[in-house]
Amino acid sequence: MHSIISRVNNVSAFLSTCMMCLLGAIALSSFLFTADPKGELTIAAVKVYNAKVPRYPRRKQEMAFVNFDLKADLTPLFNWNTKQLFLYLEAEYVNTEGVHNEVVIWDRIVRRKEDALIKVSGKNKYAFRDFSRKFKDIPTSNYTLKYSVMPYVGLLTWGEAATTLEPVEFHVEDHIS
Ligand SMILES: *[C@@H]1O[C@H](CO)[C@@H](O)[C@H](O)[C@H]1NC(C)=O
């Protein structure tokens, strides 16, 4: 009886060691096979309008509206250890106080390889505004499509799939004084 239990213990210890090695190998292999896909991102326009601040009727702020075109083939990021991708479009600019800001203006979760061929002509999903409430004296901004790969086993990895080639100007249509 005793020997059966100890044998079962040994076997299960052996199996869990195998399991750990296997998971380790899967995690490692996805580092070895990292893809670095590159797409195209163009910004059609960035227009700034005056908007009301919710709950503060007399306060005004400027909001930026970004129209972009994005094309990227992210299917190479899908391997046997890819659970899903998190894509996000980030605007980067330096505001009038010299603070470097990064703002996520659009995102998408991709769960299947079939959906990883990205072709979007769209506008920002999330409000784009500055703490100072103004974009007036901010010359330009840069835009980058970034992704993080969530694996089944192992650590998150990050990358950049597309970026604007030149800084993009803010077109202030209606500024606040
Ligand atoms: C935007 O990109 C240009 C060149 O690609 C770079 O010189 C500039 O520092 C970037 N601006 C920001 C705010 O990252």
TrEMBL record:
Its main location: endoplasmic reticulum. It is a single-pass type II membrane protein. It is found in: Endoplasmic reticulum membrane. Keywords: Endoplasmic reticulum, Membrane, Signal-anchor, Transmembrane, Transmembrane helix. The keyword Metal-binding does not apply. The chain crosses the membrane at residues 12-33. GO terms for cellular component: signal peptidase complex. GO terms for biological process: protein targeting to ER; signal peptide processing. The keyword Coiled coil does not apply. Belongs to the SPCS3 family. Essential component of the signal peptidase complex (SPC) which catalyzes the cleavage of N-terminal signal sequences from nascent proteins as they are translocated into the lumen of the endoplasmic reticulum. Essential for the SPC catalytic activity, possibly by stabilizing and positioning the active center of the complex close to the lumenal surface. Essential for viability. This is Signal peptidase subunit 3. It comes from Armillaria gallica (Bulbous honey fungus).
